[in-house]
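If you are new to this repository, start here. Below is one unmodified record pulled from the training split, so you can see the exact layout before writing a loader.
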Amino acid sequence: MRETHIAEFDTAFNFVRRPTSLPPDLRPIWKISMLILMLHICCRGGRSSLQRLHVLNWAVRNHESREDFNHLIEGRLEPTDVVVRYEPGLQRAIDLSLGQKLVSRVGGDKIQLTSTGRAFAKALLAEECVAVEKTFFQGIKQTVTEARIEQIVYMVST
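And here is the target side for that same chain:
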């Protein structure tokens, strides 16, 4: 706490540093949890390309992006109608997950769950946390194949 006197007001002011709340999507544990759930629920064998993980990471961020993604998959939106954001926070979550041995790199651009990561995913599924995100991943798991994501991304880039 720091006290400052401002003569013009003829009073003292106290300045107190307070913690700043971070939104959940910027918290590392939330990102790591999303990464683990994406791999466990949406990816065959718990393995995915970085490209698919970035698309899923964008899709799960908030209600609007989940809705846009569902419309995109259903064909009600064209790939050029949405802006998929590739955010550095996902790469940090991957790096932290690699360090914690939750995931491993496979063949260059693929990420795969380890046995520790699968155990963490099962623990997340057993808890009542991130229910909206788990429901979203369960609802799209059949539609987010590597081929489908590649098709969406290719259509945007051409």
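Two things worth knowing about this chain: Helices lie at 28-42, 50-60, 63-74, 88-99, 115-126, 131-140, 146-157. Residues 79 and 152 are 6 Å apart (CA to CA).
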